[in-house]
Design brief:
The structure holds two protein chains of two kinds. In chain A, the strands form two sheets. A three-stranded antiparallel β-sheet of chain A has the order 2-3-5. A two-stranded antiparallel ribbon of chain A has the order 1-4. In chain A, about 15% of the residues are buried. Chain A is an alpha+beta fold. Helices cover about 70% and strands about 0% of the residues of chain B. The radius of gyration of chain B is 20 Å and the shape is globular. The chains are: A alpha+beta, B mainly alpha. Chains A and B meet through α2 of A and α2 of B.
Amino acid sequence: MCIYWSLGFGNWLLHHVHGGLLRLMRYVLDIIKGAISLIVGMSVTIKAFFSPVVTVQYPRKVINITPRFRGHTKLIADEEMPDRTKCVVCGMCVKNCPSGSIKKVEGEKKEGEKKKTATEYILNFTTCSQCGICVETCPFDALAFSADYNPAGYRKEDFYYDLIKEFEKRKKA
Amino acid sequence: MNELMAIINIIGKETVRVIIGLIGVLILVVINALILTWAERKVAGHMQRRIAAKEVGPFGLIQPIADSLKLLGKELLTPVNVDKPLYYLAPTLIFIPVLVSFIVIPFDSYLQVKDINVGILVILAFSSLSMLSILIAGWGSNNKYSLIGAVRSVAQNIAYEIPLLLSLLPVIFMVNSLSLKDIVEFQRGGWFVWKWQFFAFLIYFIAGVAETNRTPFDLPEAESELVAGFHTEYSGMRFAIFFLAEYTNIMIISAIATTFFLGGYLGPVLPGIVWFLIKTYFLVFVILWFRWTFPRVRFDQLLNFSWKILIPVSFANLLVTGGILKL
């Protein structure tokens, strides 16, 4: 105050009125900015309100599973003999599985053939984390991921899959 | 028939009118709550690009009835250490202002239970009572979440009742009457939203949303902080009554906004009641729209917004209107 007196009353008045006006302008600007941001937000939701629904009524309608989806592993059919799998029971997947989820791979050698044919392939899906190391290391590219996204069961034994049986079922279908 | 006329003659035509009106209001309140619970789900769903309720009945229209049956079937729990008289009183008390407010609202030029010459005062006075019942519910529940919710509600209602009143006053100045019917009839020359009172409408609507404890001002029942606020300890039908009161309050706030600023039942071609309901439910939709757009405000923001912005602006509006009317 004293300093302003030395500069003159006019300066004091100018400073204070000026400061006050600035503050008032900022107050009004804040309200306007806030109102605009609220209107922007409301326009976003009203656009969503009138846009088509993106969800699907699940048990009745199912969307396509992406090709890279990782379900449990499945065995692939041999190109030459489509009723058999490509698996030759080399055991690479059993050795490489970090969780030890592939319990048992057994096969037999058929008359006049060089390769073994798998007869049993047990996958414990409860400990499988779909890491895909078995798929990668399979020297014959006999494994792939299935698109089975909703397995369900009452006991954990329900998730000990025999992939050969699963293959047979797929073959029939 | 003669006996009926005799009874009517004994208790008086006016009383009969009020009784019939009250029954009508009760039906209206219940139907409104059913529609609004359905509408809220649908609006919420479509704003999140979902379908929302669709299983029970066509478009899920019977869903609210299924819900109310479920609530009727639920056990009425009374926690051990509640303040019993207050605990039981609160859900009853919250319903009185709701019923009284509808009596003076003109749904059409002839469809009004009673045209009191202090209509708006009755509504405002009784709507303060709902805050009291929230406080009673919070106190009687003997639960810290309920109490915090109730205290917040009181602070909020004190802050927002002032701009609410101040935004209605300019209209009353212009019409020179407190009767809701006079206010509607005055708007034959043009609705108040377009004629000078746009800011009053905005302030009234914002304060009204705060009065009904709706998002973004739903601090009394902020579920992420306070479980359910003042109705944490209520179950079954008691909880349903709080719910019913909330939805009816939304309708009352919208109905008063319609009467004061949007010309009430006035409109071309269609009958008055249809216009009234269209306008009211449009405003109700806007309130639902608010809820699914804005996040909850902080408590200091809530009070600052009322005391620093709404009240000064509404005072300025009042002064300007008064000044112009005097000229």
